[in-house]
Amino acid sequence: MLDIIALGLLLFIAASLTFGAIAIVGIPYRIAAERNHPQQDAIYFAGWASLFTLHAAWPLVWIWAAAYREDPVPRFAQLNEDTAINDRAEADDEAADPALDQLDEDITDSVTLLRHRYDVLDDRLERIETAIMAASDAA
Most C-beta atoms within 10 A of its C-beta, which of 58, 83, 135, 138? Predict the structure, then answer.
């Protein structure tokens, strides 16, 4: 009788581990779909590929999915408008060269764009570092 109970318990544990491993495969894909990640399909297949490596690659797939965040508000447009207003020549300065004013606006827009790209990269690096720290703490 104890042999049957032990066998049933062993089969239950094996089935639970199998289904748990399969359920873990889909977590990065659900994160990517929620965040509207442009590489959702690749993350889906990488999750399944991690099953064959006994989930050794799964933390990397999870970080890949979690590191992306689509900005709901384009920050560049707001920064560009603010900077362009503040950096315009004064109205009473009529002797200014129009080509010089255009060059000044182009430089301002370029600096604003570079600042925006730096902010985006800085945000992504912070999220990646946070994800790596969380993964290392979990391990």
Answer: 58
